[in-house]
Amino acid sequence: MSVTVDDDLWSAVGDPIRRRMLDLLLSGGGGTATTLSERLPVTRQAVAKHLGVLDRVGLVHVTPSGRERLYQVDEAQLARAVAQLSSVGAAWDARLQRIKRIAEAIQRSKDS
User: Fold this and answer.
1) Other CB atoms within 10 Å distance of the CB of residue 33
2) Is residue 69 within 8 Å of 32, Cβ to Cβ?
3) CATH number of the domain enclosing 17
4) Residue 42 falls inside a structural domain
5) Is residue 39 part of a domain?
6) CB 3.0-4.6 Å disulfide test: which of 33, 42, 103, 111 passes with 48?
7) % the chain with pLDDT above 70
8) Does residue 52 have a pLDDT over 60?
9) Hey, which bits of the chain come out as E strands?
């Protein structure tokens, strides 16, 4: 079973701060670096850098809003990430089932 994984996308969502940012953006319908930094344990500058990573992989869209930039989650790209995760999870489930069957066969041969 072959799974195509977008390494840049997974590198972006591999960071716990960026995952939390996506959660906040989804629950709030969007946000700015300032509003996000108020809810995260990092500086506004760090939030801006994380948002830049999410923007480069297409997980967020940016809209100018006065002096700030409003970020919103790109739901199509997020759905793509979720589909990849599901596919990877299914592949690993299949591998683990094969390992379990092999281990059980080895145990049965030892018990015989």
Assistant:
1) 23
2) yes
3) 1.10.10.10
4) yes
5) yes
6) 33
7) 96
8) yes
9) 60-65, 68-73
Domain that holds residue 13: 7-111
- The residues near 25 (Cβ < 8 Å, ≥ 6 apart) are 31, 36, 60, 71, 72, 73
Q: Which residues of 49-76 are buried (b: 16+ CB within 10 A; e: fewer)?
A: ebbebbbebbbbeeeeeeeebbbebbee
Number of compact structural domains in the chain: 1
* Cβ atoms of residues 48 and 35 within 8 Å: no
Which ranges constitute the DSSP H helices of 29-74?
Answer: 33-37, 44-56
| Residue at 93 is within a domain | yes
Classify residue 75: in a domain, yes or no: yes
Q: Which of 35, 27, 25 is nearest to 60 (CA)?
A: 25
End-to-end CA distance of the chain: 33
- Calpha distance 78→46 (Å, rounded): 22
| Residues 72, 29: Cα–Cα separation, whole Å | 7
Could you read off the pLDDT of 77-101 as tens digits, one per residue? 988 888 888 888 888 888 999 999 9
